[in-house]
Amino acid sequence: MMPLVDELRRDLLMAGDVAPVWYLDGSRALELGDAVIAIGAFDGVHRGHGELMRRTVSDARARGMRAYAVTFDPDPDTIVSPAPARHLMTVEDRLHALAATGVDGVIVVPFTRELAAFDHERFFGDVLQPCCRMHAIHVGSDFRLGAHGASDVAVMRAWGIARGIDVHGHDLVLDGGAPVSATRIRTLLADGSIEHANDELGRRYLVCGRIITGRGQGTALGFPTANIAYDASLQLPAAGVYAGLACVDGTVWPAAINVGLPPTFEDRCGSASLEANLIGFSGDIYGDRIDLLFDEHLRPSFKFDDIHDLIDTVQRDIAHVGERFGHEGVSIS
């Protein structure tokens, strides 16, 4: 059964009111007044981040103030780490998702090597205090700030006490006894544990891309596929076949999604590492944006020696997706 429209819009980051997003790039002065803020990289905007935003907004409302999410572009990991982790979201999607958490705005701090050298006092004093009067700061209990992560919650709390600013380090949301985190979700995705990753995200995992010309093999075999170019910094699920959904031009279609170069055709020109068969769809969508939602891991990828075995297996994949989600598209415009 196709999910309800509200659920689809949630998973596609289209649900809820979206607050404004401001970049502290010096292009204009911001005067946002009395505020309660939450700070973080917020990759994935997962269940733990959602709980942190709920607490921040609740605190702000109790004080009669506005609540803001403070984040960074690019993710600090891409600047300070010699081997940056892959991301769960593009920057655009991350900011959009944060802006829909109920906060009154998102403050984006451009992250540079110069900023990475700031200690917490300089970050708060030079970067944030000129744009808002902070009365409370909310972070996760493991949050660290400043050069080499020297400032933990205890250090920031002592700084805040001297200035009448409350600093809260919240316990992390747990799943099965382990903290929900972007790192853990990346590991689950890399293992192909898409259902568990979705539980920790609080929605189906989303990958956005653009449809490109492929090798044409799927059409010749009777199951045309959309070959998809995507942001190479994103963490894809493990190679294999997944049941999912695909949104093109405001309509969501059931989809059998393949991740990784198909072993049977990996040496063919035009083979793509991400492709999807949209069940019930027909038409020309080359060049269009496509949003993929991953729902269930069906099987690993393997090489077929017999083309008929390949056709039978892919048809079973498509039949499974059809049984799960139906055979028609649903408009969410």
Quick description:
The chain is of the alpha/beta class and 333 residues long. It has helices at residues 5-11, 47-63, 77-80, 91-99, 113-116, 120-128, 153-161, 182-190, 194-201, 217-221, 307-325; strands at residues 21-23, 34-39, 66-73, 105-110, 133-140, 166-170, 174-175, 178-179, 205-212, 226-230, 240-248, 251-259, 274-278, 289-299, 330-331. The strands form three sheets. A six-stranded parallel beta sheet has the order 1-4-3-2-5-6. It has a six-stranded antiparallel barrel with strand order 9-10-13-12-11-14. The chain has a two-stranded antiparallel sheet with strand order 7-8.
What report would you give on this structure?
The protein is built from eleven helices and 15 strands. By secondary structure, it is α/β, with parallel strands linked by helices. The two termini are about 20 Å apart. The protein is elongated and about 75 Å long. Strand 2, helix 2 (about 45-65) and strand 3 form a beta-alpha-beta unit. The protein folds into two domains: about 5-175, HUPs (Rossmann fold, 3-Layer(aba) Sandwich); about 205-330, Beta Barrel (Elongation Factor Tu (Ef-tu), domain 3). The relative contact order is 0.14. Strands 1-4-3-2-5-6 form a six-stranded parallel sheet. Helix 8 (about 180-190) packs antiparallel against helix 9.
